[in-house]
Design brief:
Radius of gyration: 21 Å
Order of helices and strands: HEHEHEHEEHEHEHHEEHHHH
Shape: globular
Number of domains: 2
Number of helices: 12
Mean pLDDT: 92
Largest sheet: 7 strands, mixed
Number of strands: 9
Strand order of the largest sheet: 3-2-1-4-7-6-8
Structural class: alpha/beta
Low-confidence stretches: 371-380
CATH architecture of the largest domain: Alpha-Beta Complex
CATH class of the largest domain: Alpha Beta
CATH topology of the largest domain: Spore Coat Polysaccharide Biosynthesis Protein SpsA, Chain A
Length: 380
Amino acid sequence: MFYYALLIATGAYAVLLLYMRRALHRLNKKNPERPAPLRIAVVVAARNEARNLPELFRCLEAQHIPPRYQVSFIMINDRSGDATAELLDAQRRRDPRFTIITITDRKPGIAPKKRAIDKAVRQSDADVIILTDADGRPGPYWLRTMADRFESGADMVLGYAPYSPQKQHKLLYGLVTLEYFSVAAVAAATTAMRFPVTCVGTNMAYRRALFLEVDGFGPYKHIISGDDDLFLTHVREQKRYHIDYVADARAHVFNAPPRSIGQYIHQRLRYASKGFRYPIKVTLALTIYVLYNAAWLYAALQACLGLADYALLTLAFFMKTGAEFLFLHKAAKLMSEQRTLKFIPLAALLHPFYILFFGVLGQLNIFRWKETKMETGVSR
C-alpha cells in the first residue's frame, strides 16, 4: 500500500512540474514598451565587504545606461569594521553618482539588512529601486534589462543570480549550483503562474512607490532574514501589483558560491528558517513537500533492508527524476544555465536527505550570518 501511495504522490508531483514547465513559456514575453524617463537607484547594503567592493564598483560603472535613465548608486555601510568605509568614500569622490549612508548601531524591532534597505529607499527620490549585493557581479546590460520591465508595466521585477563558474571541486560545485538553480527555476515558473514564491536579494527591483505603499517590510521587518522572499510574499499577498521575472541572461547577476561546507550549511539553514513565516497555504505546501521526501527516505531504508517493492519504487523514481529533468531542462534553456543538468541523476538520489536535513534543522534558527550567532529576531 505504501508504494502505491508513493507512486500516486509522485504522479501528482510530476504533473505539477510539467504544469510549471508549461508556464515557463510565458517568460521573456514583454508587453509593448512605453519608453519614459526613469530615475533609478541601485541599492547595496554592505557590511565588512572590502574584499568585494572594488569589483562591484567596476561592474556598476560599466553599465550601459540609456540617456532617458537617471541613475544613482546608494551604498549603505552597515557597521563595518574593515576598510569598507574608506573604499566607499574613495568611490564617492571618484564618481558623484555614488551616495553613502552610514549605520553605526542596531535598532530593536527591525533586522539590520532590512533597516539598511529601508533607510536607503526612503531617502532616495528614485522611481525604481534595483537591489544587488556587494559580491554581485552584474553584466553590462543588467540595469537596462531590469529597468525595461518597468516600462512594460511591472511593479516588481525578479532576476536570476547564478553562481560564478568555479574550477575546483567540480562535483560538489555542480550539485550546489544545480540545487541553487532549481530554486530559481521554481521562482521563474511560479512568477509566470502569477504566484511567485521566492526570489533572491542579489537581483531584484521594485517601484519605490510600491515599497512605501506596503509600508516597507511590514510584518516581516523584525525577522533577521527575508529581505527578499518575505518582502516578495508581503507584496504578492496585496494582490494588486504586477510581478515579473526576467530570464534573459543579460539580466543575470553572478555571485560567489559558499566558500566552505560550513558556510553552505549555515546559508541553507538561513533559507529554510522562514518556513513558518510564510502564509499558511505556502507553509502547508512546504510541509507536504518535506513529508513527501521523508517518504522517499523511508523507501530508501526499506530498499537497503531488502523489504521494498522494487518495481513500484523504480517506476516512481524514474517518474520523479524524469519530470524534474524536463522542468529544469526547459528552465535552463530559457535562463542560459545548462551547465549543471548532468548532475540531475545524482542530485535526485541525494535530494530527499537534503530536504529533510535543512527543512527540519532550519526551524531551530541555529545558523550564522554576518553577525556571530543568529537570534530568532533582532538584538534585544
